[in-house]
Amino acid sequence: MNIAHVKRLPDNSWDLPHLLENHLKGTFELAAQFAKAFNSEGWGKILGLAHDTGKSTENWQKYLIRKSGYGEDDAHLEGKPRTVEHSTSSAKLAEEIFGKGVGRLLAYCIAGHHAGLPDWQPEGKHGSSSLKYRLANAISEEIDREIKSRIATEKPGNPPWKFNNNGLDISLWVRMLFSCLVDADFLDTEAYMDKEKTQKRGGYLSMKELLDVFNKHMTEKIDNADNTIVNEIRQIVLSDCRKAAVNSPGVFSLTVPTGGGKTLSSLAFALEHAVKHNFDRIIYVIPYTSIIEQNADVFRKALGDNQVVEHHASLDEDDSTTKSRLAAENWDAPIIVTTSVQFFESLFAAKTSRCRKLHNIANSVVVLDEAQLLPIEYLSPIIQTIELLSRWFKVTFVISTATQPALESRSDFKEFKGLLFGSVREIIQDVPKLYLELKRVNVEIPLDWKRPETYEDIAKELTTESRVLCIVSDRKSCRELYQLMPKGTYHLSALMCGQHRSEIIAEIKSKLTNSNEPVRVISTQLVEAGVDLDFPVVFRALAGLDSIAQAAGRCNREGKLMKGRVVVFIPPKKSPPGILRKAADATETMLKSGVADPLDHANFEKFFGQLYWMANSLDTKGIIDLLKPDLEECGIQFRTAAEKFKIIDDAQQHTILVPYGKGKELIDLLKNKGPERWIFRKLQRYSVNVYTNDFSSLQRKGLVDEISPSVFALTFDPGYDYQIGLLVDEIPFDPDKFIL
């Protein structure tokens, strides 16, 4: 009798063991069920059957008893027992039974089901953990003969489609199979170890039920809406989304000017489409957590609090239920709202915790909100993955934005390997007419492109306006301009922690709606995507054409004026080097050429084409080369690719906890109680990311302290200002000067 897991009961007695035979059966049934979504049921079954076969050896069974003390009422261990590895021998068995082709693909998943998908080649720091090294040094002779015979009777069959060996086809498929195995293994083990947790999973409304709830909400919302032109146009957008939902699955674009009601209209499309095509869930992928919180609230009002699961780093555990936290582990819920970082980094991940949810992307609708913000340095692997998910994994994508990023291949830019030309279908029936009818602003462009304006001159112009938003492209410019403005002006930048920004944005909205007071705001581009501010006048430092359009979306948003005023100016400092500067240069070239209306939607394909051409690479880290298999050994560098695919480069940034509001109390709690998950989750709202050089400067001044391993906090309260956030450059070397 081979045992997979054991556990003690509350009275310290032993529960009946989780037999290996039962665990393999439970895991293969779940893995096969998950893999069926992308026609790989047989592969999922074999992975479930084979993944823990190494636990059937006499050596591992003895190790389990030594480690747990199973069977001894008063067992204790002398030191820590040496780990006995089981996954490599299980992987070795799979390759021996199914050969180096099929067996090796299975071996990646089996060998990695605890530690994560391995690299094939033994290079660098992953040498001894590479699959090639592990298989060469593994033995499978001691695995139970009956289990070997059982697995040998299974035939996974050929892969479900013909792979392109020069792309991401095989690596994505293996990662999806890996996800099926890992989630099945977790769930079957959890059902034995923690039945109460298992019982809290699931129980959501069906897509049909959610659509009924949504339709009722929309009827009430429309009945109570003001009779304005903007609301009439939003109804046209909603109608077009409902009509397009009956179309066959694939890739769609939703091109709607800012303020046109994309959020609820895209949800209408997604629900109708999911019901029509029997999809399991809807996943919203959003670039910023500030927009996630805003949109998730909209979805909850439309569908109910318990049907929407947020999955992002800034989520406070007090704002989520046990059920929603469990669903965030594997995205087993009907509506998932997550970040671009979480979604795309997971699709290229190697760790079990990040890959576990991937199989639930299959058979779903994925809405890429504010899609113009897809990271250009990873655009090629992202586009290829979108195409593969759409073609083989039954995923419908909605590329939703006011400024479409031109993701299809074009004859005038042959180096750009985008989506197949003509494969993206537009949801809105008459985009030019929609943009014309929703035109709510006039854009003023510089008269003299050779003469930058000083911030002193810009501040004077801004001061003549009682309600004005000015957006610049970097934090330092934001502070410099803010310091020239009258008292009472608001400042917004990423040097303010998330809680601080949220409170300031809420205060700005309240003043704009409920008072006649002056409201002047100096901000970085963090307000450009999805933040529902409505100013009569918006100034924007020269930037990418998409950024100018997004800034214009904060002007006359509700159409209460005849026309709002958007002023593009040349700042005294150029945009930061890299993509931001290239975007500004591409915009300048276009506007100089005599573009009649900078916000005409037809301009954006040309703009993005120019920007992609100017980029150094659309796969700067060589992700595709790392993940395409070599034909001789089917070698794939999963772990190295995962480490390189970082939308936010941790090596270039450091996180500092700040004593804003409750942040001080939480920092003290962390110091006194030590690292606890719930404290870290709460502190996400009180953290600021800074570049390495700024972090080093604060360290040299003695203003940050390591309060927990690799966790740093500002130790000098005046170093965080309640108007502008973390003082990076402003703090002198001698903090004693601030002591009163």
Keywords:
6-stranded parallel β-sheet, 740 residues, alpha/beta, 43% helix, disordered C terminus, 21 strands, Rossmann fold, single chain, 4 domains
Characterise the protein shown here.
The protein has 28 helices and 21 strands. The protein starts with a strand and ends in a 14-residue tail after the last strand. Residues 73-81, 314-319 and 733-740 have low confidence and may be disordered. The protein has 4 domains: 3-162 and 173-186, no CATH class; 208-436, P-loop containing nucleotide triphosphate hydrolases (Rossmann fold, 3-Layer(aba) Sandwich); 439-602, Rossmann fold (3-Layer(aba) Sandwich); 650-738, no CATH class. The protein has a 7-stranded parallel β-sheet, sandwiched between helices. It is 43% helix and 12% strand. With 740 residues, it is an alpha/beta fold. Helix 2 runs antiparallel to helix 4 (87-111), helix 10 packs parallel to helix 11 (262-277) and helix 22 (579-592) packs across helix 23.
